[in-house]
Structure prediction request, 255 residues.
Amino acid sequence: MSWNLMGKTAVVTGGSKGIGFAIVEEMLQLGCYVIVIARNENLLLEKQTNWIKKGYQVTVIAADVSNKAFNDKILSSILLNVSEIDILVNNVGGNLPKQFLEYSEEECMNIIQQNLFTCINITRLLFPIIKKNANASIVNISSIAGILHVGTGSIYAMSKAAIIQFTKSLSVEWAPFNIRVNAVAPWFTETDRIEKLLENKILEKHVRVNTPLGRIAQTKEIANVVAFLAMNESSYITGQTISVDGGFSFNGQAS
Prediction:
């Protein structure tokens, strides 16, 4: 059966919790060797211990991908373990939901840095290793907020929309290197951050009522799509953004 990631090496940013953690778990279960980058060293080491106990091949790097001061550490740590990369998942991101006029300039820059420039920085940094591969795949995590207004803040939405356009443009530019570039756009997903938001029962009802499937996504449901885009079976898919939203973006009755 070829529906797996056996023999492949992946780098996943922000892989210690939430959607990133689910992506790492899915790839490990599919036989991939995964290099996980995240800021919280203690949490990373705890996760690594559990993964190794399960027999998975995994390396962790404690680093902040939004800070170029960590670039040398990231690159040297990766090259210590592998000479090329098959898969890069740009998952790091964050938000501070506010009305537009309530944002300070510093808050705007922080959101853009965290969501967009982390993606740009790590992709640029790892390009020499990725291009060695004959069939590499980059998957960027965007958001439905980058496609539609969903009330999570204009700065966040702008940064996630930029990731979608970055994905389209880079897919064409890097096609001669046989590097595919795609994006996944989740809707509300059961992570710690989203669960806190959904303590607002008015918001929770709004999300469920306007999502045709009538529920909040599980992190594994996002991870499944990312894993598919990393597989050889998706080898003719590039430049695409796949919405994983339970039908929300096609609900003409959304209110």
The chain is about 45% helix and 15% strand.
